[in-house]
Design a protein that fits this description.
65 residues, mainly alpha
């Protein structure tokens, strides 16, 4: 009887390890996705800043004429 209980306990613990690894992989995938989205947002912001600076320069050049 004790070997059967030990077998079930080992199976239960092994299942927990698989679930933990799966959860960690999912969390890592989500973090990667968040990082990629953050990079896209930063690139868009830099592009908008560059466009704004160009517009300011054009306005300054027009005002000097």
């Amino acid at each position: 009887m004790k070997p059967i209980i030990a077998l079930f306990a080992a199976a239960a613990l092994a299942g927990c390890g698989v679930e933990t690894a799966s959860t960690a992989a999912t969390a890592a995938a989500l973090k990667k996705q968040e990082l990629e989205q953050g990079k896209k947002t930063m690139e868009q912001a830099q592009k908008k800043i560059g466009q704004s600076m160009e517009q300011m320069q054009h306005a300054r050049d027009a005002a000097e004429k």
